Amino acid sequence: KTLGKVPVNCAIVYSIRVGIELPTVEVRFERLTVQARCHVGSRALPTLLNSARNIAEGALGLLGVRLGRQATLTILKDVSGAVRPSRMTLLLGPPSSGKTTLLLALAGKLDPSLRRAGEVAYNGFPLEEFVPQKTAAYISQTDVHVGEMTVKETLDFSARCQGVGTKYDLLTELARREKEAGIRPEPEVDLFMKATSMEGVESSLQTDYTLRILGLDICADTIVGDQMQRGISGGQKKRVTTGEMIVGPTKVLFMDEISTGLDSSTTFQIVKCLQQIVHLGEATILMSLLQPAPETFELFDDIILLSEGQIVYQGPRDFVLEFFESCGFRCPERKGTADFLQEVTSKKDQEQYWADKQRPYRYISVSEFAQTFKRFHVGLELENHLSVPFDKSRSHQAALVFSKHSVSTRELLKASFDKEWLLIKRNSFVYIFKTIQLIIVALIASTVFLRTQMHTRNLDDGFVYVGALLFTLIVNMFNGFAELPLTITRLPVFFKHRDLLFYPAWIFTLPNVVLRIPFSIIESIVWVVVTYYTMGFAPEADRFFKQLLLVFLIQQMAGGLFRAIAGLCRSMIIAQTGGALFLLIFFVLGGFLLPKDFIPKWWIWGYWISPLVYGYNALAVNEFYSPRWMDKFVMDKNGVPKRLGMAMLEGANIFTDKNWFWIGAAGLLGFTIFFNV
Question: What is the membrane topology noted in the UniProt record heading this document (predicted)?
């Protein structure tokens, strides 16, 4: 009952009772121009020929040779303005007007391939002098989430990665000033503030509060879902995307079309909550909406109207209709103001709003509107405001973030391990199925290479054992294939979190590798226990455990390889084609399909970089150095007796050095580390 009043009381306590100044951020952009170089016409079509030409031109471009002609498109054209704290700002404009590009430019997330001119500053600090990804949050219009996690788990993980910012420091200062002033805090407010200032908690009160204000409390324990499993609705996903960012301590929000998929009532409720955050928490929000309802439009204080990459109007909502009336256009009584603003700059719709009966209608271009606005009293005030540089000394020390590491590495690792373990439990069927599949294949292999039919009399018998070892190598190699689709499905979420600086890449990779080691140990034991004595490999106990170690390392190497292929290819289609090329090279040059002595000299480098070489040689050396092979002799071509084990290794083009077991094991371990890195 009192939950909705708590943030209001917090702000009042901060600002009125003891005079604590809340950190505020003013975002200014001056003479901002964004251009893109791209192909136009038939050259821009995604045909096979054009794709091949793009690759060739890109390769030549690295050498400084420019062959293809590209057109320059101006997305934003010399725009200037300011987004002020404590004021809700609405970004309006027809499609393709440059709204998303402006939001990305202000958030410091502009694509590097775009050319940017002009300056963007927060409290007078250019983007290069602080960490914009930690200071501001860009909320995309696309919903990218882990489908297996529930709504609450998604927000909890986001809160743990973002931390609490300066809340703890502000709370400490508040307690000190209250004590000096003899003020006794309200129990509800004090409890809320302390609960939301705690770092490292798995589920915070801030998450519960965010779920409540976004109307997600009814589906908090429902999985988000994806194309393969049913979850929450599209509108609820859009609110999860918003909640994922506002659950953190960020004071600046750039929100791109957050109303997509939402009904007008839900949009109104969300914007109303954000309005409270802005007015009472002195936050800075720039939000773009497509055709907001009149009651939602009324919640905003300022309007930025963008069209054809130029700002037509920026200032208080109360003066926007007055500006267009001065240009000769009037909004009809039954017409929504937001719809009028998006249509009045359109050549197709502009004439119907012409209201000046004293002169005939003529089309007024966007450039003319932009020039007229500069002479309008709101435009003059904006120009005067921008002409005075922001005094950096006025910036609160907690307003901007100057370090990428707002949360300790230990807490990030703990959060990442918890998330990965949760996903493993949700996907437990995959790991159970893999183990059962391995048992079935092992039983089938044991009946093919049955020990009663496996002898150690001559070289022909030895090559049967080589076949059994190769089968062991290949089966355990492809046992890691499941990592490919699992990794690819999580890559979009990883890239999103990485760009937001939630965590570095190794924080994501390490739990993926470490938490799968127990499953790999179980699968290795299952395979070796079922096959080793059934197939009749060397009966010594030390060779049993050595083969177990090699099988485990092969599985780890394979898992790392398929994760690396997923990271390079980034889609299942490319991974199944381009990724197959890596596997073919590894297999052809692995030393068993084509012996080492038959590989051409210009391809011998491929032999040494194939991880299968090390697994194959180590398995063979471990088997054929056993007494039952080394205590028997055969005649070579010259009639000289030779140990059967040595003759077998030489005949199969395998290294005869006994140390190759450890060389092979070290090679597999090295490839495992390399692929995961």
Answer: Multi-pass membrane protein
**Whether the Cβ atoms of residue 500 and residue 134 lie closer than 8 Å to each other:** no
Q: For the segment 340-364, what is each residue's pLDDT rounded down to a tens digit?
A: 998 999 888 888 999 888 888 889 9
Q: Both tokens of residue 201?
A: 């908690």
According to DSSP, the residues that pair with 136 across neighbouring strands are: 252
Question: Would the CA dihedral through 105, 111, 116, 122 be positive or negative?
Answer: positive
Per-residue pLDDT band for 2 (boundaries 50, 70, 90) equals very low
* E strands present in 125-233: 125-126, 136-139
SS3 content of the chain, % helix, strand, coil (to 5): 60, 10, 30
Read off the pLDDT of residues 111-146 as tens digits, 9 standing for 90 and up.
888 999 999 999 999 999 999 988 999 998 889 999
Contact 499, 131 (CB under 8 A): no
Maximum pairwise Cα distance, the chain: 118
As a whole number of angstroms, the distance between CA 404 and CA 499 comes to 12
Topology (CATH) of 100-389 = Rossmann fold (3.40.50)
Q: What is the DSSP letter of 387?
A: H
Element (H, E) at 288: strand 284-288
Write out the H or E segment, with its range, that includes residue 425: helix 409-426
For every residue of 314-357, DSSP letters joined together read: EEEGGGHHHHHHHTTB---TTS-HHHHHHHTT-TTTGGGGB--T
Provide the token pair at 535. Answer: 């197939």
Pairing of strands 88-92, 302-307: parallel
User: In the block, which residue shows the tokens 């908690």?
Assistant: 201
Opening angle at CA 74, ends 72 and 79, nearest 5: 155
Q: How many CB atoms lie within 10 A of CB 199?
A: 16
Report the DSSP beta bridge partners of residue 30: 119
Question: For the packed helices 572-588 and 483-499, what is the interaxial angle rounded to 10 degrees?
Answer: 120
- In what helix (H) or strand (E) does residue 634 lie, and over which residues does it extend? strand 633-635
Q: For the chain, what are the domain ranges?
A: 100-389, 409-676
Specify whether the CB–CB gap between 305 and 92 falls below 8 A: yes
Which CA distances in Å does 176 have to 173, 347, 463? 5, 61, 81
